[in-house]
């Protein structure tokens, strides 16, 4: 038997089917060259389509409910303070107020806690209509300088905030220069609430993008003062506000982490916030908000994911029901099916 | 006419006049490679566009990404095609070098020397041994054969595999081989041209080789470059054309590149996208400038200077130009080239298109036009050798009014004929003699004594074989003595002249002298209309014409045989005229034909031979299937009307009578043709609405008139008619018909097997050659070569259709994916102050274009929407491809809309990101990778772009999955 096959193979080597003991590899190559690799083609029969839609619905709806519940369990307090913090005499000329450094910028907010909030409670500031993604802005920094400091002296990327009085600025660039400098201090009743301001920046940023031995130099010394100042004795990697700020936002309305309150808050607690309202958003109509929020396993307050799942799930079930009804009312006969298969033109997908 | 004078064996004179025998097929040299190649590549619009973009990106003020993200792929693409060119050129260099450094024997200063082929000069005398390749074009002056004969194989030149005889000119006849060294003389020949069938030259030898006569030279006296010397111990020749000026070198040309309909459409769509891009750039540029002046100046943290440079208003538009530049995908050319070469490979590899008899696989010589195969509308086919097997068998004959072979369909088994041969009926004997003598067949006697025949014409071979079967055996054929063995008796005939066959004369004759009786005869064979009108006065040709008619209706090829006795004086007189005609340099062909005419008249018609040429396997089925697929068939043949019609009927070209209808267009004058044409047109218009199978039949003569004077009417006819049979057409008419159909915007495929089809094959959108018995000439000129006609079905329905579908998908998908990423950038620009910020960093952009979206490219070349069997069973499906339903502006608009829609979908998903932030802090401690960040939510532009890019990777690949029809492992 074997002999016969061997003979057959050697006699007609050109005909691949006759090759004796085809290896798996050569078989695959053969299938490739003959365009006959195994494939599966999903056939869209009524039963399979209805089942698929139904299964999709069955999976999506519970997921939707779970994520919606997670989002609903998050408690969030948002308070806009940019206009509130302007004293009445300056209401008509906010820009003059914010630019006048002689006027104290203190301001006090009272936030009422609607539901019990479990620690950690995240404190964010939110800016609206602020274009951190503007091309001129987003490019104006020097990643090399942030790691190597003065050792790296090419600051041309940072224009127009690259140097001052002939000396380079560390950290250079518009982003650092416009550092957000409102500050908040919290208290409940008379007792101060401790805000943990460590570990608010990405660890990777602190470790790899900002130098451990780079200290601010010649910063905010120019004629034009932008935002906050930095303590020249603390290395950049420990200036977490700066690290957070320099991770620029993609959208013109964004939140940035300020710190964490590591105490629980009860219902009806009133949190008093002392704000130093330094940052100028008035000249371009930007808004400032303070946000306190807890978190769930799914993150912050966001109904979208749950709603989206519910929407997709319920529409799948709806579609499967419609198809089912159509199918029951007007079942596909054998003949039609075969016709449908055969008549399917090569342009069907368009 | 320009002439060249070649002085034989003259070392001083010929030094610098003509080029040496260095063959160079190279396109580049080491020095000019880079500039020349770059110049060539940059002559294409797309490449210019990409270069401009890449240059703009070098300006840091406007570039959104690292210039490397464009320069990288651009350089890669250029490097790939430059490397390919360089590799091809290097291979050409190697093969040139091999040919150039080949050692040959040449006579220099009277001594035989071994030199390299590249040092051969015009006028040198070369010695070749058996099986040597001829290094340049030579005029033969001596061979080992006493009669001055030698045999060559010309397959490298014209693809014909049979041996051809070459003969030394009469002036050199009898010169001793030792004296050949010292031969001196001059050859007067035309300047190099590429006609491998013509060489009209003269030779004059100098004393002491007396012979002051001008000796005519023809192609029969030459050995052309790349031929091989066979069956001859040695041969000796004078180099007349060397290097790139040889006949082969001159006929090497750069074939015109064919552009598929699809390529043209893709180019058009690219243009449209380019315009769209400009509009976007202008609109966004204006919006950006307005926003800058109104809003951005208020944003103190951006620090816009009040005064900018003069070109400031240009900066934002240019930034958007760069952002949108990816709308035209740089990868499309590369991926299309890649998949196209893969389609071609699939054709080469296809086991089902291997001709089992000869083991020849199909071959795609042109790798760029597979899609066009799926869009073929007209197939113009040759008959002999293409539809038929071109294996001729003598089947019937009619000698002096007696039909042989009518009863059993095979004259060789007809008892009557056998007995007529045995009884020695003079007409039959003469008939057999013509069959055996009047040809150019070379009998080759093997050691065992059996005789095999080598012939250029299949008809002649069939006739000689049949004659041998009837005991008239052609034993030996040396230049002028022909040996025939009839029933054991050897007869010698001296061949005085051969009046060769040409397609104009349509007959060939030999003048022979019977050694026995000393009488001279003219023996002729040819097409009926070339023989019967020249019958001697008084002979009735009616019965022969009827025989021809009858045989043609059976689909047989017919040849008429005739003879005439010639007086010695008449022959001598004519011989002079013939010699003179043969030695003219100008219009030799015509002069020779005229001289032949002087002898070929007053024929005694002997009879008609009918030769069968069977249809190839599967021809009717193939034609039927392809006709169902909506492809129109035209048959262009040199055969006569009846044979052509008969073959057409038997291979399903037209349905038989009640359903099918044949309309004849004929006529000898303009008026007749015009009337006939108009009548046919009228019938066509009437029957157009009926489900009737109407075909027109036209012959070469009427076609000539119709094409010349009634082109408009004929064009209308061509559009109306699905089927046409054109008989008695010349090669140039075939090409004209292709041209006509092409001018009506039809996609044409021409298929043929012989040298007479080459022009039509080159002219058509797609040329298919059958690598058959008439040699490889057609297969070599063609874009595709197949072994048998029936493979055409698979070539079109499977390979053509899949290629079309795949390319249609792939090209549009390429645009889709680049539009997708572009639209995201555009939408992002609205929320980033229209400042031209790029959402994606260079690495993601590159990865997107190169890695993530190239997988679909790889997979889609294997995609099949329907199984091969389904397509073969329902060829009507091809209609969608023919009509270009898968790639046209409206499908493209669909993909355009799809990318816009998917973008909005994604934008919506991303738009909710603000509320997503909590998680970002939750995963913060571990979020060192951007992928984590993208799961975690977005608070920074980096992770935002990471999320967006992962979203579009999913989206593009998902939508890809939806459009792939089956999933391959």
Structural notes for this entry:
The complex is a heterodimer of chains A (350) and B (969). With 350 residues, chain A is α+β, with helices and mostly antiparallel strands. In chain A, 33% of the residues lie in helices and 17% in strands. Chain A has a five-stranded antiparallel sheet with strand order 2-12-4-10-9. In chain A, strand 5 and strand 6 form a beta hairpin. In chain A, helix 3 packs antiparallel against helix 10. The two termini of chain A are 53 Å apart. Chain B has 969 residues and is an alpha+beta fold. Chain B contains 32 helices and 34 strands. Chain B has a nine-stranded mixed sheet, sandwiched between helices. In chain B, helix 16 runs parallel beside helix 24. The longest helix of chain B is centred in the last third of the chain and has 41 residues. The interface between A and B is large, with 70 and 75 residues.
Walk me through the topology:
The complex is a heterodimer of chains A (350) and B (969).
Chain A: H1 2-11, H2 24-33, E1 39-40, H3 46-72, E2 76-80, H4 94-99, E3 106-112, E4 121-128, H5 135-138, H6 143-148, E5 163-164, E6 167-168, H7 174-177, E7 183-188, E8 191-193, E9 195-196, H8 203-209, H9 240-246, E10 254-261, E11 270-276, E12 287-293, H10 304-329, H11 334-343
Antiparallel strand pairs in A: 2-12, 3-11, 4-10, 4-12, 5-6, 7-8, 7-11, 9-10
Helix pairs in contact in A: 3-10
Chain B: E1 3-8, H1 33-41, H2 45-56, H3 68-100, E2 103-108, E3 111-116, E4 125-129, E5 137-143, E6 149-153, H4 155-158, E7 163-167, E8 185-190, E9 201-205, E10 215-217, E11 222-223, E12 228-230, E13 234-241, H5 247-251, H6 261-296, H7 312-324, H8 331-349, E14 363-364, E15 378-381, E16 388-399, E17 402-404, H9 415-423, H10 426-437, E18 442-445, E19 451-454, H11 458-469, E20 472-477, E21 481-486, E22 489-499, E23 507-514, E24 520-526, H12 528-531, H13 542-553, E25 557-566, H14 568-582, H15 588-599, E26 604-615, H16 619-628, E27 632-636, H17 641-650, E28 660-665, H18 670-687, E29 693-699, H19 700-709, H20 711-720, E30 723-727, H21 731-743, E31 748-752, H22 758-763, E32 766-770, H23 777-781, E33 784-786, H24 791-831, H25 842-852, H26 854-860, H27 868-873, H28 878-882, H29 889-911, H30 917-922, H31 930-936, H32 941-963, E34 967-968
Parallel strand pairs in B: 15-27, 15-31, 27-30, 28-29, 29-30, 31-32, 32-33
Antiparallel strand pairs in B: 1-8, 2-3, 2-4, 4-13, 5-11, 5-13, 6-7, 6-12, 8-9, 9-10, 14-33, 16-17, 16-26, 18-19, 20-21, 21-22, 22-23, 23-24, 24-25, 25-26
Helix pairs in contact in B: 1-3, 3-25, 6-7, 8-24, 10-11, 13-17, 14-15, 16-24, 18-19, 18-20, 19-20, 24-29, 24-32, 25-32, 29-32, 31-32
């Amino acid at each position: 038997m074997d002999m016969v096959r061997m003979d057959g193979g050697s006699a007609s080597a050109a005909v691949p089917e006759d090759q004796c003991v085809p290896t798996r590899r050569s078989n695959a190559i053969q299938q490739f060259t003959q365009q006959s690799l195994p494939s599966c083609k999903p056939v869209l029969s009524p039963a399979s389509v209805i089942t698929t839609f139904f299964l999709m619905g069955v999976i999506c709806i519970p997921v939707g409910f779970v994520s919606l519940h997670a989002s609903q369990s998050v408690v969030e307090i948002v308070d806009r303070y940019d206009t509130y913090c302007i004293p009445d005499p300056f209401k008509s000329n906010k820009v003059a107020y914010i630019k006048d450094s002689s006027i104290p910028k203190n301001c006090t907010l009272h936030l009422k806690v609607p539901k019990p909030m479990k620690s950690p409670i995240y404190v964010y500031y939110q800016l609206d209509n602020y274009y951190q993604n503007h091309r001129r802005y987003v490019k104006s920094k020097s990643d090399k300088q942030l790691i190597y400091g003065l050792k790296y002296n090419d600051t041309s990327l940072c224009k127009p905030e690259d140097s001052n009085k002939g000396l380079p600025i560390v950290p250079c660039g518009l982003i650092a220069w416009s550092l957000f400098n409102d500050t908040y201090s919290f208290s409940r009743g008379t007792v101060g609430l401790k805000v943990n301001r460590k570990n608010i920046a990405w660890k990777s940023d602190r470790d790899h993008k900002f130098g451990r031995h780079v200290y601010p130099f010649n910063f905010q010394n120019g004629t034009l003062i932008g935002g906050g100042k930095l303590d020249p004795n603390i290395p950049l990697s420990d200036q977490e506000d700066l690290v957070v700020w320099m991770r620029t936002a993609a959208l013109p309305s964004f939140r940035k982490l300020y710190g964490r309150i590591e105490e629980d808050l009860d219902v009806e607690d009133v949190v008093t916030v002392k704000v130093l309202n330094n940052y100028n958003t008035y000249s371009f109509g930007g808004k400032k908000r303070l946000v306190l929020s807890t978190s769930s396993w799914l993150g912050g307050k966001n109904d979208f994911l749950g709603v989206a799942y519910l929407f997709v799930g319920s529409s799948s079930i709806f579609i499967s029901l419609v198809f089912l009804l159509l199918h029951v009312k007007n079942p596909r006969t054998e003949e039609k099916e075969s016709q449908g298969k055969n008549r399917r033109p090569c342009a069907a997908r368009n | 006419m320009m002439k060249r004078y070649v002085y034989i064996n003259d070392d001083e004179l010929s030094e610098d006049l003509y080029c040496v025998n260095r063959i160079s097929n190279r396109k580049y040299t080491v020095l000019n490679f880079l500039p020349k190649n770059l110049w060539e590549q940059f002559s294409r619009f797309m490449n210019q566009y990409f270069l401009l973009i890449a240059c703009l990106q070098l300006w840091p003020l406007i570039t959104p990404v690292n210039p490397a993200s464009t320069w990288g792929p651009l350089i890669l693409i250029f490097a790939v095609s430059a490397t390919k060119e360089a590799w091809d050129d290097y291979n050409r260099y190697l093969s040139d070098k091999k040919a150039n450094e080949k050692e040959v024997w040449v006579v220099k200063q009277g001594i035989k020397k071994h030199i390299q082929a590249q040092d051969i000069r015009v006028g040198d005398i070369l010695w070749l041994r058996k099986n040597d390749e001829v290094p340049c074009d030579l005029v033969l002056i001596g061979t080992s054969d006493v009669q001055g004969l030698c045999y060559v194989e010309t397959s490298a030149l014209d693809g014909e595999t049979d041996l051809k005889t070459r003969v030394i000119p009469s002036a050199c006849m009898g010169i001793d081989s030792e004296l050949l060294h010292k031969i001196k003389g001059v050859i007067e020949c035309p300047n190099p041209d590429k006609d491998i069938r013509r060489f009209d030259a003269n030779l004059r030898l100098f004393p002491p080789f007396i012979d002051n006569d001008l000796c005519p030279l023809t192609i029969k006296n030459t050995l052309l470059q790349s031929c091989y010397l066979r069956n001859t111990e040695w041969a000796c020749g004078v180099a007349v054309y060397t290097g790139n000026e040889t006949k082969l070198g001159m006929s090497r040309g750069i074939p015109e590149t064919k552009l598929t309909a699809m390529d043209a459409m893709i180019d058009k769509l690219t243009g449209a996208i380019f315009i769209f891009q400009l509009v976007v750039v202008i609109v966004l540029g204006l919006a950006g400038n307005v926003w800058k002046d109104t809003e951005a100046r208020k944003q103190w943290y951006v620090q816009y200077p009040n005064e900018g440079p003069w070109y400031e208003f240009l900066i934002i538009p240019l930034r958007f130009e760069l952002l949108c530049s990816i709308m035209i995908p740089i990868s499309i050319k590369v991926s299309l080239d890649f998949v196209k070469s893969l389609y071609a490979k699939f054709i080469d590899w296809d086991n089902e298109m291997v001709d089992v008899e000869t083991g020849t696989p199909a071959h795609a010589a042109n790798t760029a036009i597979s899609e066009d195969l799926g869009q073929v509308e007209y197939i113009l086919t040759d008959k002999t050798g293409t539809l038929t097997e071109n294996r001729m068998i003598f089947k019937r004959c009619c000698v002096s009014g007696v039909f042989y072979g009518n009863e059993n369909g095979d004259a060789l088994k007809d008892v009557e004929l056998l007995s007529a041969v045995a009884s020695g009926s003079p007409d039959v004997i003469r008939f057999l003699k013509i069959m055996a003598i009047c040809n150019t067949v070379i009998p080759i006697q093997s050691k065992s004594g059996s005789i095999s025949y080598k012939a250029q014409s299949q008809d002649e071979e069939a006739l000689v074989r049949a004659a041998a079967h009837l005991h008239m055996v052609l034993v030996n054929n040396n230049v002028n003595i022909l040996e025939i063995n009839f029933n054991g008796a050897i007869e010698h005939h001296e061949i005085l002249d051969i009046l060769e066959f040409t397609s104009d004369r349509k007959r060939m004759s030999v003048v022979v002298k019977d050694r026995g009786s000393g009488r001279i005869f003219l023996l002729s064979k040819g097409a009926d209309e070339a023989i019967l009108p020249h019958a001697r006065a008084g002979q009735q040709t009616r019965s022969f014409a009827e025989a021809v008619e009858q045989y043609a209706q059976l689909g047989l090829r017919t040849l008429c045989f005739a003879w005439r006795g010639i007086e010695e004086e008449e022959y001598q007189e004519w011989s002079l005229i013939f010699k003179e005609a043969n030695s003219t340099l100008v219009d030799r062909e015509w002069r020779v034909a005229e001289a032949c005419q002087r002898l070929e008249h007053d024929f005694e018609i002997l009879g008609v031979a009918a030769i069968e040429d069977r249809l190839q396997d599967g021809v009717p089925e193939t034609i039927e299937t392809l006709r169902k697929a909506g492809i129109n068939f035209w048959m262009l043949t040199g055969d006569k009307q009846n044979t052509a019609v008969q073959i057409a009927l038997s291979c399903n070209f037209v349905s038989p009578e009640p359903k099918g209808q044949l309309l004849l267009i004929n006529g000898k004058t303009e008026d007749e043709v015009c009337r006939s044409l108009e009548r046919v047109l009228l019938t066509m218009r009437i029957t157009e609405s009926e489900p009737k199978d109407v075909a027109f039949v036209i012959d070469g003569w009427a076609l000539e008139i119709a094409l010349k004077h009634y082109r408009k009417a004929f064009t209308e006819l061509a559009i109306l008619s699905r089927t046409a049979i054109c008989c008695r057409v010349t090669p140039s008419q075939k090409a004209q018909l292709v041209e006509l159909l092409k001018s009506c915007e039809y996609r044409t495929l021409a298929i043929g097997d012989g040298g007479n089809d080459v022009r039509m094959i080159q002219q058509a959108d797609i040329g298919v050659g059958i690598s058959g018995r008439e040699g490889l000439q057609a297969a070599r000129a063609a874009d595709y070569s197949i072994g048998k006609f029936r493979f055409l079905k698979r070539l079109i329905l499977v390979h053509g259709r899949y290629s079309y579908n795949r390319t249609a998908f792939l090209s549009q998908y390429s645009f889709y994916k680049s539009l997708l990423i572009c639209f995201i950038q555009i939408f992002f620009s609205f929320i980033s102050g229209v400042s031209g910020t790029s959402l994606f960093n260079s690495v993601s952009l590159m990865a997107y274009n190169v890695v993530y979206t190239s997988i679909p490219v790889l997979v889609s070349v294997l995609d099949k929407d329907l199984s091969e069997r389904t397509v073969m069973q329902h060829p009507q499906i091809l209609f969608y491809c023919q009509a270009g339903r898968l790639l046209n502006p409206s499908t493209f608009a669909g993909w355009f809309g799809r990318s816009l829609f998917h973008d909005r979908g994604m934008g919506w998903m991303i738009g909710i990101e603000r509320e997503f932030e909590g998680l970002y802090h939750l995963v913060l401690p571990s979020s060192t990778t951007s992928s984590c960040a993208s799961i975690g939510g977005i608070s920074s532009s980096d992770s935002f772009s990471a999320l967006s890019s992962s979203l579009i990777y999913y989206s593009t690949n998902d939508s890809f999955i939806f459009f792939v029809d089956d999933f391959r492992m």
